[in-house]
What we know:
Elements: E1 6-7, E2 23-28, E3 33-38, E4 45-46, E5 59-60, H1 68-84, H2 87-91, E6 99-104, H3 116-129, E7 137-142, H4 150-160, E8 164-169, H5 175-182, H6 188-201, E9 204-209, E10 211-213, H7 220-235, E11 242-246, E12 260-262, H8 265-276, E13 282-285
Parallel strand pairs: 3-6, 4-5, 6-7, 7-8, 8-9, 9-11, 11-13
Antiparallel strand pairs: 1-2, 2-3, 10-12
Bound molecules: iron/sulfur cluster.
Residues 46, 48-50, 53, 55, 58, 108-109, 143, 169 line the site of iron/sulfur cluster.
Amino acid sequence: MIDPVKPLSTINHDRDSAALRYVYPVVSRRAGGVSVGINLNPNNACNWRCIYCQVPFLTRGSAPPIDLAILENELRDFLGELLHGDFMQSRVPEGARRINDIALSGNGEPTSSAEFVQVIELIARVRSAVALPATVKTVLITNGSLLYRSAVQQGLRDIAKLNGEVWFKLDRASAAGMQRVNDTRTSMDKVRDNLIAAIACCPTWLQTCWFALDGEPPSRQDEDDYLGFISALLRDGHKPQGVLLYSLARPSMQVEAPRLSALSAEQLQAFAERIVKLGLHVKVSP
Ligand code: SF4
């Protein structure tokens, strides 16, 4: 969601162009590399319904049972192809021919998978088997809502050992704002507890989508809620790595799509400067 990306649906262009079930490569020119995505929600199911969500035919629910053997084969084969095959030369533009990360992301909430911990173990096994350079990150992109579960926390601790990073979604910092933007009912106390758990288990970035609804950018109150939430967190000694602040990178696939519009780089920058004053690093992607 951070970078304009060009998804590729196949691994081996020399053979049949069959799409894979779980693994999908994404080339990011901006990040200058290939991200190896793992989609644990091929059923397009999430426990939230963000109004900017890019998943088509999104439904409420959890990840389906994962066929771990298929996932392991797909991941091993694809990383092998990236490291030793001609995929980079033939499919990736010059300047982006390196592996950036393995990213647990996709068409729903990855931590809703009952096999989440086994998936992380599998990633560790495959990383080791193909001798993936330690510099390649393992990234979990999550809405953070299931961090209260001990199995999810265990998964995060295991991700941390794999040059891991968590991107924790925080689009608005009020219950009303989260209902409006994420279509979820929660309290900020629960969000705070989940975020503190994430930070304790693994280096954690906040990912924040800041956009206009019906032509109105987020209000001063929205900004103040967000800054107040982070200030309290920092005051109590829970420090995220920083904030990934972005606007609408790709079109929403939800019914609200016509009501959404991106903010200008200047608008994002102005909010970023307020966050920076709290002592947090902010990466802005208009
Ligand atoms: S949490 Fe992610 S997958 Fe779920 S609805 Fe929001 S943007 Fe879509």
